[in-house]
Amino acid sequence: HKMNVLHWHLTEDQGWRIEINQYPKLTEVGSWRTEKDGSTYGGFYTQEQIKEVIAYASQRGIAVIPEIELPGHSVAALAAYPQYSCTGGPFEVETDWGVFKDVYCAGNDSTFAFLENILDEVFELFPSEYIHIGGDESPKFRWEHCAKCQKRIADEGHHDEHELQSYFIQRIENYINSKGKKLIGWDEILEGGLAQGATVQSWRGFEGAAEAAKTGHDAIVSPTSHAYFDYGLEATDLEKVYSFNPIPEGLTDLESKHIIGGECNMWTERAPQNTIDSKVFPRILAMSEVLWNYPTERNYDAFYDRVQNHYKRLDQLGVDYGLETIPVHFNSEHTDGEFKITLKPGTKDLDIHYQINESQVFQYDSTFSVTGTNHIKSWATKGLKTYGEAFNIDLYQHKGLDATISGLNEYYEGYTGGGDNCIADGLRGTTNFRDGRWQGYSGQNFTSTLSFETIQKVDSVITSFFQYNLSWIFMPSKITVYTSVDGLSYFNRAELEPQISAKAEGEFFEEFVLTFPEVEAKYIKIKAENYGKCPDWHPAAGSDAWLFVDEIRVY
Fold first, then answer.
1. Backbone dihedral angles phi then psi of residue 487, each to the nearest 5 degrees
2. Cα dihedral 142, 147, 153, 157 in deg (nearest 10)
3. Ramachandran class of 536: left when φ > 0, alpha when ψ lies in -120 to 50, beta otherwise
4. Which of 69, 63, 72, 62 is nearest to 17 (CA)?
5. What is the Cα–Cα distance from 282 to 286, expressed in whole angstroms?
6. Mean of pLDDT over the chain
7. Are 409 and 447 spatial neighbours (Cβ–Cβ below 8 Å)?
8. Coil, helix or strand for 8?
9. What CA–CA distance (Å, rounded) separates 441 from 446?
10. pTM
């Protein structure tokens, strides 16, 4: 499949995975974490094992580029050597997943000496011309409250902590360059000014790669939308990967030459080894073809047929590949008081079956209609075998289905939920906020107005919001419902605050039932106030909070 570079991410908040002789505590302390059930998890690669991996890869024409994360995602290192933090600790290797506010202190010269000594040992191990230093998701909270970091900002004539991060990266890059190596960093290294010879790896979209290329910097393109293979198929399936164009739109031919490659990312720390094959294959087949052949015109059906033939080779190699896509694609339209349901097989050669409210099983052959609130279960078979997992959906009948949606704030392009009308289409989101049904707002309130053709009698509005605070997603601080007859004068009908604490762990949604005495209304306005900034106790304190909404039901 011609994958000729292994980007090896070796350090994180949850574990330090590379032996450094000068700093033995990095592995003695930093490579082990105590899980919430009391068990211990961890380990690391010895320098001898790393040499074996590099030699094995080299024999196969594969370069290995190490990543030593800085200045953020460094809690495991700080657990071992807390003197290189802003507070002095103490710290423990993280067991949770997300972004954490404790980072390397940028105002302490000893921090840079520590990192340079680590890099010296890394350079001795890895012959690659590149080294990846991360640079992503580094909250500025500690720097904002650190006297040494604030003095550094003043002494260097910087304006803010973003420029301090640029100083940090550029200082590290100067050291890397002095050793004859080149720096790669995630697209956050663009903030505050890009180091002179840095290569940008764009993961938050295509914009970082485009910005880098336009300023004469090389870029690697690996956006979450197409390239993250630890994501589920509902977010990134085989066809989505095959549609990947690594050259951002709007670049000139000269600028396009700075796009030096793409990458498929498989974050394995939480993925048991027996699941890796099914996540990587067959999607890596699509990535290989679009990066190496770069077809300007793509025929997915023809590619799909070739993949079916390729499975014979993977079988011979013992690759436990997974599915091409989710088994069943679901679509519903509400007209004349009915939901018209269309089910589409995820791939060719699939038969679809369904049940309504756990009744008789039907084989799907055409669009069908249901009225009222219903639970629909559908699944696919390929030959005599079930293909993937069953698909379950609840459809809610309510007055808002016939309304026109307006007045929305700008939602994030990666979390559209299906567009403006998704918030009143009868579909509820699941506990997977990447399921395509949630609409996401970063640092913004949610506002929406539902307008009807005629005056309606209403007495309640039910909304649901998602929370997963480790991904910075919080419940709204308050929800308010207003009604109007003329679209000019609005009256506050009900307010609610969340019952779930912002500190509650896990992924879940809360349903808000706002009731009021029956009124006549032609317009209903809903406002949900964003939590604002991640609070001081949060690992990403000071960062914009996310607000995720799915369905507004009107009765």
1. 80, 5
2. 160
3. alpha
4. 69
5. 7
6. 94
7. yes
8. strand
9. 7
10. 0.86
